[in-house]
Amino acid sequence: MSDAEDRSDKRVFGKAIKRNEDIPLLTGSATYTDDVMLREMVHLAIRRSDHAHATIVDIDTSEAEAMDGVIAVYTGEDVVESGVPNTIPTAWMLPGLVTPQYRMLAVDKVRHEGDGIAAVVAETPEKARDALDAIEVTYEKLEHVTDPVDAVESDVPPVHDEAADNVAFDFELGEKDVVDEAFEAADHVVSVDLRQPRIIPNAMEPRAAVADWDRGTEELRIWMTSQNPHLHRMLLSAGTLGVPENKIQVIAPEVGGGFGSKIYHYPDEAVTAWCSMQLGRPVKWKASRMEAYVTDCHGRDHTTTAEIAVNDDGTVQGVRVETYAGLGAQLSQFATATPSYLYSTILSGEYAIPAIYCRVIGAFTNTTPVDAYRGAGRAEGIYVIERLMDVAARELDMDPAEFRRRNLIPADQFPYQTAAAVIYDSGEYERAMDTALEHIGYDDLRERQKALREEGRYLGIGVGNFVESAGLSPSGLAGDLGAQAGGWESSIVRFDSTGTVTVLVGTADQGQGHRTTFAQIAAEELGVDIDAVNVVEGDTDQIPQGMGTYGSRSASVGGGAIARGARDVREKAREIAAHQLEASVEDIGFDDGEFHVVGAPDRSMHIQAVAAQAYLGHNLPEEMDPGLESTNFYDPENFTFPFGTHVAVVEIDPETGAIDLERYVAVDDCGEIINPLIVEGQVHGGIAQGIGAALYEGAVYDDDGHLTTRRMDEYAVPHATYLPDFETENTVTPSPHNPIGVKGVGESATIAAAPTIVSAVVDALEPFGVTHLDMPITPERVWRAMGGGD
Amino acid sequence: MYANDFEYYRATSVAEAVELLVSNEGAEPMAGSHGLLPRMRTGEEAPPVLVDINGIDGLRSIEETEAGLSIGALTTHAEIARSELVQTHAPALAVAAQAVGDIQVRNGGSIGGNLAHGDPRADLPAAVLALGGSVSVTGPDGSSSIDATELFHGDFKTEVGDHEIVTAVEIPVAANTASTYVKYRNPLSGYPLIGVGTWVQTDDGGETIEAARVAATGNLVRSMRLEEVENALIGSAVDKSTIDAAVAEAAVDEELYRQDPQASAAYCNHLLAVRTAEALDTVLAIETN
Ligand SMILES: Cc1cc2nc3c(=O)[nH]c(=O)nc-3n(C[C@H](O)[C@H](O)[C@H](O)COP(=O)(O)OP(=O)(O)OC[C@H]3O[C@@H](n4cnc5c(N)ncnc54)[C@H](O)[C@@H]3O)c2cc1C
């Protein structure tokens, strides 16, 4: 089917149409934050700590201030003296949480390499950067800690005085006694120690901001790389700057990737705005790539002991998990939610597990703050349960796929209350698993594996089942659990008087293709051409409210708000059509944009003609106001739970330990599919990131607390050439409670891929008695696991 | 990051380039800029003056000379990789050039720059060392030649003087020889974690190894010859046991490796042996010419 045919079809929901955003992005006409140029604009650079932990004895800025082109140099004390609230708040409270003040610039101590110390504003970015080196900082070095277990268990000076043992929170889910009993009663208990390394997000576009403070009106306009402009508006207002929320406009123009890292309110953007407020001039700040490595929130950083209780019949009886989660030096907004609720509540995976207990100790360390990264919490949790399923299958001498199948939650059990507090909405787990195993030819592969082993070749087959809790989140539930914000999304769906449609929505695209998928939803509901719909995101002055894009929420929650808004608009239009066609509303049918009197098809009116009438207002039903638009707040009744099965085939080079990824099959069920092309794109990118974590990535700190993986040639984001062709399929199990049946797909494949790859490599190494290897599974790790270096 | 400010000159002759280097304190020549600019942008280097040598005629060619091949310093990796002359007479260099970076890098980077840069990770040094090559340089005192074995000091330092321009790379060609290069990519950077260049010369019957050179590059402090491996080869029969004996010598002191976040010195030494074996298998199995 050609694109032309596709686009004129009114039934666009579910069609693989090409993305609306690609022409501006590919031709370079799109505007990113760094493209914003304002009159009189000056440039900010931030002096950062070279040390992991040190007392600031003195900051001498005099030389920098005297440099050519330097306009001002500010320190943390200057920010304090300005009287702004100066607090980056946490967005999720937990019982007993310690919340030290997280300031815009450090005042007393630096707590991680990259901590901001001073701000230089100069005429050019180069001059600002040059002046950084002229700032003399006298430090008194302190002992530091970068590992979350060491932070809590060994005797090190605290990162914050408020948390003497470096424990920010100690979180529990489930009843320990009950779970302990299940373990006592089970035939086998198997355990595994896991380390999930820190991941550096590496969005293509580094963070940036352009702030413009108007001294006359006392209004702040700020362009920034944001996944959630409204959240940033709120935090800039209530947290850091104290400017009334209605006097701040946050604009997120094109944003080049985020993967979570652009959700948060960082010090840097607040400092940019604050500098503009001091100077009354527009200020631009843009992170360098190396700055991004030490300041963008990292992901993961878990050290876990996990146990699984199983019976001889291959049924899982319980799961018990203890995790030390590194939070970094400060509490970023969702740093507390990610390793607690988002992690522990997914530990049931796709399986019927009667007893689950999880304890998480959140630890401050002298490192870059850690927060949600694609898959946040769910990725870590699914990794734990999938590793447990593998080690348990090995213990029982069962095929790992068969063992998993035996424990799947049956399709007739939904909605399913897990032992980890959440209710899964819908699922046909076995269907997706069968599809994946058939696609890859699982049984034949096992035969081939056996034959190759005879020849001294090591093939590995990894199976990964996953569930994701997506669509963050029902506000009431989130509030009960400690969220400091709601989980709804809002939209305005508006017919313009000439019949075009404008959709304003509070989500914020960073590459996902919202302008296409959201237009498909509205076009379908309203029966208009997709090209008649324009989707607007990323501007708090145009879009009244919103929560943003993260946690695989945009299609389900944002899309839900758009569908509901469009339906309201359609029903108002139906009333106008009924009035003008002189029929009763019940007798008005609607097909492909055309309202018609049932039984009299020639008496009809197109919805776009109705829109014109709505704005003319000459002939409307009595008491009806003119106009044709709807504002909708959609608060979902539950999370959605996408799921699926991924399978990977690897072969290990016994000489070097190199891993050849031969095949990768992904079967995803994300509910109804709005655009298969975009779903496939999300799956491809997600798999790549999961493979990255499994085989290549992982931040490393040296003994001095310096990040040694701080550049593109020291930290491996997987290259396209490292990846095989992905073979993708979908099953469709609609979410019963979502207005359009979608579940979301943004994080699924990242969640699935890491455990699938690890499972495959460990499977290949079975003849060597290997039951687990930590990520990243480098060739050296494999080589050593096979006895190399002994 | 932004590079520091610098002045830029474009030389049109070697003499002018030398003159510019002499008269500008701290000046550096610039060829393909694929080695220099990344380091300027990270702040590792900050030359106040760049002398662009790309406008100099006559530095971009591959010619047969009496002694072998003469390759102009500005010849790109891509040109070397697809040169039939290089493929025939110096296969190690063609393979190494093809293994460099990606297509943009191969189209931009030059052999002179690659060798003069002194990046211990670079591919070409192992091939040039194995082939017994040398570089011709011209400075204020005239022209001279630097043997590859003298060239690499490690840590981006080379024997090429501050005021000298590499004009060509000379590769000797002889009968009954074979050579190749084997690269094991570091997934972090794409540069070799270990790269091994080998060259052997046999007697007319192809039964005895008369001369051999083996060189390594990658995660080492500098690109270097592996003399123990060479000694195990020279004078030995072309057979499996010779390869085994040579491979047993393919290890260097662990201090000669740099830190890598994902590969220990012990593992690098293991890779060195595996790649040496692979390279020797190739050169000793193929017809010598
Ligand atoms: C993304 C990327 C990947 C890469 N991957 C690889 C790889 O896998 N393997 C590999 O070997 N290399 C790799 N490189 C480096 C590439 O091969 C460089 O081009 C090469 O090392 C330097 O050559 P150049 O011509 O670019 O020199 P330049 O960058 O211009 O110069 C490098 C240095 O040599 C000096 N210099 C240059 N020419 C001369 C001359 N004629 N006389 C005297 N001094 C001179 C300069 O002053 C400078 O100090 C990569 C580079 C990039 C950007």
TrEMBL record, chain A:
It comes from the Archaea. Coiled coil: none annotated. Keywords: Molybdenum, Oxidoreductase. GO terms for molecular function: iron ion binding; oxidoreductase activity. Residues 27-143 form the Aldehyde oxidase/xanthine dehydrogenase a/b hammerhead domain. Pfam families: Ald_Xan_dh_C, MoCoBD_1, MoCoBD_2. This is Xanthine dehydrogenase family protein molybdopterin-binding subunit.
Automatic annotation (TrEMBL), chain B:
It comes from Natronocalculus amylovorans. This is FAD binding domain-containing protein. InterPro entries: CO_DH_flav_C (IPR005107), CO_DH_flav_C_dom_sf (IPR036683), Diverse_Substr_Oxidored (IPR051312), FAD-bd_PCMH (IPR016166), FAD-bd_PCMH-like_sf (IPR036318), FAD-bd_PCMH_sub1 (IPR016167), FAD-bd_PCMH_sub2 (IPR016169), Mopterin_DH_FAD-bd (IPR002346). Keywords: FAD, Flavoprotein, Oxidoreductase. SUPFAM superfamilies: CO dehydrogenase flavoprotein C-terminal domain-like (SSF55447), FAD-binding/transporter-associated domain-like (SSF56176). Signal peptide: none annotated. One of its GO terms (molecular function) is oxidoreductase activity. Residues 1-176 form the FAD-binding PCMH-type domain.
